[in-house]
Structures are given as structure tokens and as C-alpha cells.
Design brief:
about 270 residues
């Protein structure tokens, strides 16, 4: 009899523990959903800022002039080759090296901008700061020119496939406000939160570790059609969502056709 009571007590405790676990998952889901709702509301406000920031005028700070012919300076390689400081080595950056350089430049520029603000002097544009950054890091003109050319070549190589690189290029050429990258980071966080909620809804018994692994796999690999379609539906108004849906469908079809042609199936 005592053995039976002990077994019942054990099972009851396990059931209670399991119920608490499920309740915790439900509470986490509710918390995530509330966060998503807040992010969606924020995103509506951000869309206006996004459209306004895609084209910006040069900084109008007192005493500040935009660098002349910035785009031409960025896009030409002859400046480096004919600079009269010797042969410039053709350094080829991997995507990881380029991303690490971009992120470090952003981080160092934030500190530099704070010093400028404290000293009450105008901030440098990202293009101007790139040379300041390279000068502080390498000092020698040959290395500065070498790295500047490598960064620009890296942008040309990876901008079409890596949106962070494409955004850096736009900021570098004064085609986009520098602070727009914070909006992009916010949108990315919204997307990841939405995807995580969808994975949890589809697999309610998955552990947190498994959820994070699934999320990481989607980031590195392929997202299912129903998932990106639902994200667009959640984040955008109906008309905008429809336009985006059509554009993405066309992009997918175009890439599939290109891949088939490349593999000899066209």
C-alpha cells in the first residue's frame, strides 16, 4: 500500500512538474507575442523613416561641407594606383573579413563621433572617416591606400549578395543616412522574433536550445515560402505586403532560372 502511495505521489509530482513546464512555455509564448505586437507597431512608424532616409542630403552642420564628388572618389581605383606612393598590393578580402572591418569601423566611428560632439566640431561622413580610421590603424600611406582599395573591391564583390555590405556602400556614398543602420537592426530583430514565434507554434514541444538551433539554421539556409509570406503579412499593410510578395516571387523565379541555366538545365 505504501509503495502504491509513493508511486502515486511520484507520478503526481511529475505531472505537476510537466504542467509547470508547459505553463512556462505558454507564458513565454505570450511574452513573445506581446513583444512581436509591440515591434509590429514600432515597425509601422519606422516605415515612414525608412522611406525618408533612403535618400538624404549631406549633413548641414555649421561649417560642414560635403566631400566633393564622393561617389566618383569611391568608385575609382586609379587614385590609388597613381598616387605616387609606390605599388599598391591587390588584397582580396573574404566576406567575413569585410564584415569584420565594417563592424569595427562602425564601432570606432561611434567613439570618434562622441569626441567630435564633446569638442563641438562637425562629425565626419563615413567616407571621410574611413580614411581617418585606416590612418589610425595602419599609419603608412601605402597600407591606407591598399586597404581602402580592398574595401571598395570587397563592396563591389559582395554588395549584391550581402545586404549589410550594400547598406555600408550606400552610407559611404552619402546615398543613405548613417543612422539608417539602426532601423535595419531593429527590423532584423523583429524578423527573428517573428520567425521564432512561428517555429514555436509549429513545434510546441521543442526545447529552447532546439528552437534557437532551428532559428540559426533558417538564418544560414533557406526559409520556407509560407514563413516569409506570413512575416510580410504581419509586418506590412495589405497593399505593401502584396507588392513585396510579388517582388520576392519574381526574385525567386529569376534565381531559379539562373541556377538552372548555370547547371545546363535551361
Amino acid at each position: 500500500m505504501r509503495q502504491k502511495d509513493a508511486e502515486i505521489t511520484r507520478l503526481t509530482a511529475e505531472l505537476k512538474k510537466s504542467t509547470q513546464k508547459e505553463k512556462k512555455k505558454i507564458d513565454e509564448n505570450d511574452l513573445l507575442r506581446k513583444k512581436i505586437q509591440q515591434l509590429e507597431a514600432d515597425n509601422r512608424g519606422l516605415r515612414t523613416r525608412i522611406s525618408n532616409n533612403t535618400k538624404v542630403k549631406p549633413d548641414q552642420s555649421p561649417g560642414r561641407k560635403a566631400p566633393p564628388q564622393a561617389s566618383k572618389r569611391i568608385n575609382t581605383q586609379s587614385d590609388y594606383k597613381n598616387s605616387g606612393i609606390g605599388k599598391v598590393q591587390n588584397r582580396i578580402l573574404t566576406l567575413k573579413q569585410l564584415r569584420d572591418t565594417i563592424n569595427d569601423m562602425y564601432a570606432q566611428k561611434e567613439k570618434f563621433d562622441k569626441k567630435c560632439m564633446d569638442a563641438k566640431v562637425p562629425r565626419e561622413t563615413l567616407e571621410q572617416y574611413m580614411y581617418t580610421y585606416l590612418n589610425q590603424k595602419y599609419g603608412l600611406k601605402t597600407l591606407i591606400c591598399e586597404w581602402a582599395a580592398s574595401i571598395i573591391n570587397g563592396i563591389k564583390t559582395y554588395a549584391k549578395e550581402e545586404h549589410d555590405v550594400a547598406l555600408f556602400a550606400k552610407i559611404l556614398k552619402n546615398e543613405c543616412d548613417e543612422d539608417f543602420r539602426y532601423i535595419q537592426m531593429h527590423v532584423r530583430e523583429t524578423l527573428l522574433s517573428l520567425v521564432k514565434v512561428m517555429i514555436r507554434d509549429k513545434n510546441p514541444h521543442k526545447s529552447e536550445d532546439n528552437l534557437n538551433r532551428s532559428l540559426e539554421a533558417i538564418q544560414k539556409g533557406r526559409i520556407e515560402d509560407w514563413m516569409w509570406a506570413k512575416i510580410i503579412e504581419k509586418m506590412y499593410e495589405e497593399r505593401d505586403a502584396q507588392i513585396l510578395h510579388e517582388n520576392i516571387r519574381e526574385m525567386i523565379a529569376s534565381r531559379r532560372a539562373a541556377n538552372q541555366e548555370e547547371n545546363g538545365f535551361g
